[in-house]
Design brief:
513 residues, 8-stranded mixed beta sheet, 30% helix, globular, binds flavin-adenine dinucleotide
Length: 513
């Protein structure tokens, strides 16, 4: 049993657990966090990786969520201009497109204009984009414009029948790096972060939580926070032994990755005849990311994997737009994650709300806060709401503080990215241009700490392929909780896309020493 009684004990090292830990520690609370695997090992490394308002949620009238998420994009961009950056999205339009859609907007349209059944007319898309441009107080991101695809380069890769498109803004985010940087910030403010530490039981004893972990003993805490993501119900029922009226809906989303399909740096937003949408996004410089699906997922303990049906669905969807026909052989990697959505009784997986719900249970004395749902984009706001909910239990808790406060490596102006890139290239002339880009997008201005005074590859120690050196692995091990090759190659970076099994084994061996 630990001597210390923490203010908060957090279960879950995804974005919500780490975001709350950081915010709470910055307000002076003492916090411990346990993650049963690696940080971001579940949903928070399997997202589409967008800081976005969610254009399609407007069709579900989710105005609160969309407004909050749109506002967040720029706040977050300012605090992490290395791991997040603006992106333009091209939405091709054709007047003969028909959709099988049961969204509230589509039902309303059919009621007032029955001849519009099954259509998403151009004026409706314009209206949606007008709201999207104006709901969230944009300053950095450019607004919507119309593209003539017969002339614009964005028309090149897609079929000629698409003559027009709308182009709008959202942002990219390196999701699993966002988690680790929040964890680092939290740790620097005193949070005890324990990875590979499963919480097996939590009980209220004399008004204090006693939290039992595998491997790290028993902890005492005044409050327990359940940020278990897809495991949230398992934590309530299995770990804490309580019942609740709340429930979640597990919705699997899968992505496929192919070699780079086109030359420009914009994303495509494709609308499917089933009413769903998918994105095609430039990915890791040499690849294209396509996703996602929406399929009900049976259980939290079933590992999400992209099924052959989901892969083929994404391929067929993309083939309806791209000139180039993709086949399963073009898929170089797939990944899959489970959205832990709050169950609002929606008819389909696509329709289930993406908003978050926070519930405090204080029946047995010591309070428990359960987190249901959420998005990467709203993690900081979710953390603020969580702190607001628990403020009654911690008198004189200071107010909000995280808006715009940079994460490690991100304390430079978002307009200075090109300058920083040039600085890195000048300081380490032995790096290729794409290596400089990768390092900037991974470490921001902390790259000068990772590589120090090195003047050649030799100064960085052993080389493992794909620009990985012992200096980088040492940093990852020392500062980012990396324990094995998978942590490094699939979460701290995506360099797993570029290495073969022998190279991966060498990294594993190095990290084990
Ligand atoms: C396919 C897909 C695409 C998405 N795209 C986007 C997007 O583009 N933009 C966006 O904003 N959002 C997106 N999201 C949503 C976003 O990814 C999630 O809302 C978010 O990652 C959830 O984070 P979390 O911390 O709640 O859960 P998780 O990341 O799953 O973290 C929960 C953690 O709790 C741990 N845990 C559980 N039980 C225990 C225990 N007993 N002891 C210790 N640890 C435990 C788990 O190991 C896990 O790591 C997407 C989601 C999916 C699935």
């Amino acid at each position: 049993m630990s001597d210390q009684t923490y203010d908060l004990f957090i279960i879950g090292g995804g974005i919500n657990g780490c975001g709350i830990a950081r915010d709470a520690a910055g307000r002076g609370l003492t916090v411990a966090l346990a993650e049963m695997n690696d940080l971001a090992s579940a949903t928070s490394s399997a997202s589409t990786k967008l800081f976005h308002g969610g254009l399609r949620y407007l069709e579900y009238f989710e105005f609160r969520l969309v407004k909050e998420a749109l506002e967040e994009r720029e706040t977050l961009l300012r605090a992490m201009p290395h791991i997040s950056w603006p992106m333009r999205f091209v939405l091709p339009y054709h007047k003969d497109m028909r959709f099988d859609s049961t969204t509230p907007t589509s039902k309303l349209l059919t009621t007032v204009m029955p001849w519009m059944r099954g259509r998403r007319p151009a004026w409706l898309i314009r209206l949606g984009l007008f709201l999207y441009d104006n709901l969230g107080g944009r300053q950095i991101l450019p607004g919507t414009k119309t593209l003539d695809l017969t002339k614009a380069p964005e028309g090149g890769p897609i079929e000629d029948r698409f003559a027009r498109a709308y182009e709008y803004s959202d942002c990219w985010i390196q999701d699993s790096r966002l988690v680790v940087l929040n964890a680092r910030d939290a740790e620097s403010r005193g949070v005890r972060i324990m990875t590979r530490t499963k919480v097996t039981s939590a009980r209220r004893v004399d008004g204090i939580w006693e939290v039992t972990t595998e491997g790290q003993g028993v902890f005492r805490a005044k409050m327990l926070i359940n940020a278990g993501g897809p495991w949230v119900m398992n934590v309530i029922q299995g770990v804490v032994g309580l019942n609740t009226a709340e429930n979640i809906r597990l919705v699997r989303g899968s992505h496929i990755v192919t070699k780079r399909l086109y030359d420009h740096d914009k994303c495509y937003f494709f609308q499917g005849s089933d009413g769903r949408i998918i994105f095609a996004i430039p990915y890791e410089q040499d690849f294209t990311l396509i996703g996602t699906t929406d399929a009900d997922h049976e259980s939290f303990d079933q590992k999400p994997e992209c099924s052959p049906e989901e892969r083929d669905y994404l391929i067929d969807f993309a083939n309806g737009y791209f000139k180039q026909d993709l086949t399963a052989d073009d898929v170089v990697w797939t990944y899959s994650g489970v959205r832990p959505l709050y169950n609002d009784g929606a008819s389909s997986a696509s329709a289930a709300t993406r908003d978050y719900v926070l519930r405090v249970n204080a029946e047995g004395g010591a309070p428990l806060l359960n987190i249901f749902g959420g998005k990467i984009t709203t993690y900081r706001r979710l953390a603020e709401s969580a702190l607001e909910q628990i403020s009654g239990f911690f008198p004189n808790l200071p107010g909000k503080w995280t808006a715009g406060v940079p994460l490690a490596g991100g304390d430079f102006d978002a307009t200075r990215v090109a300058e920083l890139q040039a600085e890195i290239a000048a300081r380490y002339p032995f790096l290729s241009e794409s290596e400089v880009t990768r390092l900037l997008r991974t470490y921001g201005n902390e790259v000068f700490e990772v590589f120090g005074t090195a003047t050649s590859w030799q100064d960085l120690g052993e080389r493992f392929g794909a620009g990985i050196s012992s200096a980088e692995l040492d940093w990852a091990k020392r500062k980012e909780w990396v324990q094995n090759a998978e942590d490094f190659l699939w979460r701290r970076t995506k360099l797993g896309l570029r290495l073969n099994t022998d190279q991966i084994a060498r990294i594993d061996a190095y990290l084990a020493t």
